[in-house]
Amino acid sequence: MNKHDKDKQPTPTTNSEPSQKLLDTKVSRRDMLRLTGATGLGLLLGGGAMGSLLSRGGTAAKAPVAPVQADSSIPFYANHQAGILTPAQNFLYFAAFDLTTTKLSDVKKLLQEWTTAAAALTTGRLVGNTNDSPNLPPSDTGEADGLTPSRCTLTFGVGPSFFDERFGLAGQRPSSLADLPPFVGDNLDPAWCGGDLCVQACADDLQVAFHAIRNLARIARGTAVLRWTQEGFQRTGEADPKNGTPRNLLGFKDGTGNPDVTDEAEMNKIVWQGSGDGPAWMNGGTYMAVRRVRFRIEVWDRSSLSDQEATFGRHRQSGAPIGARDEFDKLDLKAADASGKPLIPADSHSALAHGDGTVKMLRRSYSYSGGLNAKTGQLDAGLLFISFQRDLVKQFVTIQQRLSRNDRLNEYMVHVGSAVFACFPGVREGGFIGDTLLG
Ligand SMILES: C=CC1=C(C)c2cc3[nH]c(cc4nc(cc5[nH]c(cc1n2)c(C)c5CCC(=O)O)C(CCC(=O)O)=C4C)c(C)c3C=C
Ligand SMILES: [Fe+2]
């Protein structure tokens, strides 16, 4: 169970409906999300019971994290886009697109068509209306036909290049949305960088996520083309029914120090753009940093456990800060041994990323494995680091500058891809993705 779930138990009632036993079981909101996604408990309970269960925490109507519906769908229409605060699904299919048109009207049409398709894809419906006509190519490619929505979320954004001279939108570019500055040790391959648009597809089934991107790319034909894609994974709900913090491919729990996504005030401070922060069209939106980070797995695997733990500043097994016992114990950077040496090395990843604790971000990364690099004979595996923040420069760049200069972890990894996107605010029914900018 996540530390943020511990205080959020639904209050039991005295109702004696058939599903009451389940309702009275102490289940955290996050457990609930996991259960509904992984086991279809939502289906078992039915929509009403689910609604009642989720509302017991007192947060259903205005919850910052969209509830999972009985059919394992996450509402597409909401104040904020899904896939940001949404508890991470098992799989990711990330896609960056380049626009091939120079007409803004084409871009608007594409975003309108993507909106209709996204509403279908996230609820397990087929895309388009030519799916039972024998004389026409089906409008949906079909591989997700009959599959559940699997908590599929589609999160849309635009990159800095969207605001170049092509569409006359330069004046609307948020000031922090610019290509990232070079960082020490970067070894970026343009094939893994940039993009005019992005779609982050997440789902508890990889075929569902793949299907979503494939169909969005198909719809984009003539207007936009895929620039780069990356599949990602975490452990599945089946492999980890306790829903602990996922481990990255270096074996460490990754996500422990994230802020509490159910704390609306905290999310407004860290993640969502507020009015006055930037152009009004981004109010309720957020900024995404994506880094493709390849691990030097072979080097890591030869280093001792104590070196590995000193690198992260945390114990591998428990995820606790060095010198502490519990994963969620405070990261006490002042704790020292008898000789006065800090228990958590000052150049460890956790110490540097934490800094004085005033600059935070929401991380939502996925592991990737891209097979064997034929040239080096090494695995191309690592982390597709994804973070969401209210301001890319004040948050991501500030922390990454500290890390790139001094982080012990740098010996074991190399940043090979990079992109930033402004993720639009949520879409209201009747509206379309990006309508605050292009509507
Ligand atoms: C610029 C931001 C960050 C990059 C890039 C980054 C890369 C990166 N991180 C890990 C693994 C871990 N990171 C952990 C903590 C952590 N990392 C960042 C930021 C970046 N990481 C932050 C803000 C924090 C939280 C610090 C805090 O306040 O406690 C941890 C420790 C456990 C946890 O909190 O999640 C791990 C493990 C990898 C492998 C990686 C590059 C690929
Ligand atoms: Fe990190």
Task: Kindly describe this structure.
The chain is of the alpha+beta class and 439 residues long. It has a domain at 3-55. The protein contains eleven helices and nine strands. Strands 1, 2, 3, 4, 5, 6, 7, 8 and 9 form a nine-stranded antiparallel sheet that branches. Helix 4 packs antiparallel against helix 5. The longest helix is centred in the first third of the chain and has 18 residues, at 104-121. The protein is globular, with a radius of gyration of 22 Å. The chain starts with 19 loop residues before the first helix and ends with a helix. The relative contact order is 0.16. The ligand C=CC1=C(C)c2cc3[nH]c(cc4nc(cc5[nH]c(cc1n2)c(C)c5CCC(=O)O)C(CCC(=O)O)=C4C)c(C)c3C=C is lined by residues 248, 250, 252-257, 291, 293, 312, 314, 331, 349-350, 353-354, 361, 382-383, 385, 396, 399-400, 403, 413. It is found in: Cell envelope. The chain crosses the membrane at residues 35-54. Residues 81-234 form the Dyp-type peroxidase N-terminal domain. It catalyses: heme b + 2 H(+) = protoporphyrin IX + Fe(2+).
Key terms:
439 residues; single chain; binds fe (ii) ion; 9-stranded antiparallel β-sheet; 9 strands; alpha+beta; binds ligand L6N33NVT
